[in-house]
Design a protein that fits this description.
There is one protein chain. This protein has 2 domains: 227 residues, PmbA/TldD fold (2-Layer Sandwich), CATH 3.30.2290; 224 residues, no CATH class. Helix 1 packs across helix 2. The protein contains 8 helices and 22 strands. By secondary structure, it is of the alpha+beta class.
């Protein structure tokens, strides 16, 4: 039978990374084919070059004029082999082939070693579907080769100046810019897939008086670190008056800001894993196809989103990453299916090198009206501006605890602070209360979210 081998290359790939990954995979594949005891296989290789540039305040509280720089290269590969005796073998390592005993033939010897063999997981074999073309996801910054020390220094200086302009009491204490160029290469007897990406991370610390706050911003393009300062929302919150609101009307709407919604949505994906659902260790077990919230709840996982932080065409096993409607119109629909599932359902492409869930880009779909339009219609509300602590969600029971900074506002603006309030209830109770979503969608890492508007604020506890 004629089998078409497909290899997809990015014209702007770094030659050294691409050549190294392809050569490694080709050497491994050649050694595997010489071993007739191996009937099927897949090889996955990840090579990344990571550069870091840092700056900060010195002992005299002056911003440094020069950047501190560092660089390292990370190697990682895995092989899954299926054997004639019906057993399965797996090897993962981070060493170069030239290190010690790390050679393709010695790796193959380990694969067929009886002590390394395991029962075949659910009787599966390596992924066999033909892939003829991968989508252009814009995950490589075309200007990456032209980023120099001057641009990096300008970026960090811009954020240093931005903070003072936004809040006279605050100052950037330190900042670290990390640039990552990743080459991913997967091959099996049917497909040869290559994909290269860039990603950028800006992290550091901001001081406001004696308070210190850490931040982290991630993006696919260098320019996005300048044009989309999402991370500053944690420190430069709406100017809420010092007035304390002590009397709360339980019938006031409760708005959860995009930042709060993003933090909630980020904790949800494990509940949609097939294994958890089948074992009854997810609060969604037995609920597929049924309503788990109001019709305003829409949650999507799309690893193929253009320029998304977690965008990719395929996972570590060469499975195409499929967009999933986890919840649509309040109904639980799709879930994550691994390649080694004992079901006949097709894998969704969400497995990382460790065999764990690899979430794509999450999106809670936005509505049509702004917060002000909703307030003009309904009067006044409480707004949870940001979290006081991390979201605590029990995946098995669905109980969630949120500690929130809450303010009172009307269509004319903020009137005062309600302080820190707590929500401790089943997450499905929050889903059921969402009567509308606003149009203020924003991106926080790999999550896009907009304001959720709850019917009332009765879930709040002081």
């Amino acid at each position: 039978m004629f089998v078409q081998r497909v290899e997809v290359r990015n014209r702007i790939m770094n030659d050294a990374l691409q050549t190294t990954a392809v050569q490694w995979a080709a050497q491994l594949e050649s050694a595997i084919k010489e071993q007739p005891f191996i009937t099927n296989y897949d090889i996955s290789i990840e090579l990344s070059q990571r550069k870091q540039f840092s700056n900060g305040l010195d002992a005299r509280n002056r911003w440094g004029k020069s950047l501190q720089a560092g660089q390292d290269t990370q190697h990682r590969f895995q092989i899954r082999a299926f054997l004639q005796n019906g057993m399965f073998s797996f090897i993962q390592d981070v060493r170069r082939f030239a290190d010690g005993d790390q050679t393709p033939h010695k790796i193959v010897d380990l694969l067929v070693d009886p002590q390394k063999q395991l029962p075949n997981p659910n009787g599966s074999s390596s992924y066999k579907s033909n892939i003829h073309q991968l989508k252009p996801l814009e995950i490589f910054d075309p200007r990456f080769p032209h980023i120099d020390a001057t641009l990096r220094k300008e970026l960090l200086q811009e954020h240093f100046d931005m903070i003072i302009n936004m809040n006279k009491k605050s100052r950037l204490q330190s900042a670290i810019l990390t640039e990552i160029q990743m080459m991913r290469h997967v091959r099996n007897p049917v497909n040869v897939l290559s994909e290269q990406s860039t990603s950028f991370e800006l992290q550091g610390q901001v001081a406001t008086g004696i308070q210190r706050s850490d931040f982290r911003i991630t993006a696919r393009r260098f320019a996005d670190l300048c044009t989309h300062p999402y991370g500053w929302n944690e420190f430069y919150l709406p100017p809420v008056p010092n007035k304390t609101i002590s009397s709360i009307n339980p019938d006031w709407m409760l708005m959860l800001s995009p930042q709060v919604v993003a933090a909630i949505v980020e904790t949800l994906p494990p509940a949609f894993e097939l294994e958890r659902l089948e074992k009854g260790s997810s609060f969604l077990s037995g609920k597929q196809g049924t309503a788990v919230g109001s019709k305003r709840i829409h949650i999507i996982d799309d690893a193929t989103m253009l320029s998304g932080v977690n965008s990719r065409n395929f996972d570590s096993q060469g499975v195409l990453s499929k967009p999933l409607n986890l919840i649509a119109d309040g109904v639980f629909q799709d879930f994550y299916i691994p390649l080694d599932s004992n079901r006949t359902l097709e894998a969704t492409g969400h497995t990382d090198m460790n065999g764990q869930l690899w979430v794509g880009n999450l999106m809670s779909q936005m509505g049509r009206r702004s917060q002000n339009m909703v307030l003009a219609d309904k009067g006044e509300a409480l707004l949870a501006t940001h979290l006081a602590d991390a979201v605590n969600l029990n995946i098995e029971t669905g109980m969630i605890q949120l500690r929130l900074h809450v303010a009172h506002l009307t269509a004319k603006g903020f009137t005062g602070s309600v302080g820190v309030q707590t929500i401790h209830c089943p997450i499905l109770d929050i889903f059921a209360q969402v009567s509308e979503t606003a149009n203020d969608q924003n991106r926080y890492g790999h999550v896009d979210a907009s304001t959720w508007i709850l019917e009332d604020c009765r879930l709040l506890q002081s």
